[in-house]
Amino acid sequence: MSSSDVNKVVLAYSGGLDTSIILKWLKDTYNCEVVTFTADIGQGEEVEPARVKAEAMGIKEIYIEDLREEFARDYVFPMFRANAIYEGEYLLGTSIARPLIAKRLVEIATETGADAISHGATGKGNDQVRFELGAYALKPEVKVIAPWREWDLLSREKLMAYASEHGIEVDFAKQGKKSPYSMDANLLHISYEGGILEDPWAEPEEAMWRWSVSPENAPDQPTYVELSFEKGDIVAIDGDRLSPAAVMEKLNKIGGDNGIGRDDIVENRYVGMKSRGCYETPAGTIMLKAHRAMESLTLDREAAHLKDELMPRYAKLVYNGYWWSPEREMLQAAIDQTQQVVNGDVRLKLYKGNVSVAGRRSETDSLFDESIATFEDDAGAYNQADAEGFIKLNALRLKVAAQRKTRKN
Known about the structure:
The chain is of the alpha/beta class and 409 residues long. It is 41% helix and 19% strand.
């Protein structure tokens, strides 16, 4: 777009190398004012230093916001009601954070009268799609500047040279260190890409993992934890009621201490390429196991099976950036309806990287009837003779098909 069309830009700003360079590049290329937005979504690092860096670069409007509760309550928890998992393994930790950041970018653009928003996602990744689909869904007229699709700073060396040339202070540059991985963290996970991980055959270094001990070094005694559910959401741990963000923070600690949540995946990006990434998702791994256990006791068979059929579509929508689409909202409404009866407690056993169910109960919504399911005398609660007619009726079409084969032979 023409630089004359842009007077003010809201930048998703972390204070790291890429976004610090983008901040300077935007000012020079578009001769525009820049507003910075830094979100605390539980990445575990202090976000206030971003204010100091932005001020040092002459930024007057700086937004730094604690969005941990909103992130957990309005994004992570609804997604886990769906048991969403992409390609059988990925718990969507990066994907689910992007809709919230996109929402705040366009809201701040409206508040400050900005003409455009900008992000640091590359032209090879999924995040550019997620940010921009979200932005256009919420503010159709918004302009988007994606520097990685415009500039020629396409290597870490060129970025470092640009930072040195323009006096941009970058912490690890001063220390002469090079970060070996591209990392993204929030309450749900931390991801690792790049470095030796670009070889799918290379085993991750033990020193890479930040949130969890290795399963080999986890405690030799299991840890038990009891999770209480209300309408599909975890509301208490071991009887202590907690907010959604606090639930995730505590489960991340408990899970990490027991070596839970590590994953090494080659996934299919929306833009077409395969990408290898490693993830630590302690809380999410525990939450998924517990939620499915709670549903196994309380959901009707056909409702549960239909949810399982819809889940891959839901997960794909989140992964590809369609959180704000009508189809995701439609699926969410259906999923949330099923969760009205997902109430009760699940007891889990955590041991050396594994999560197993030790018990589940629901005083109000359990569909498990011991008098029917028992292997002992059920006092007539279930008439086993009824099964004969049930089987014969369901076998009828199979028998007819078999007879046709016999005739043809």
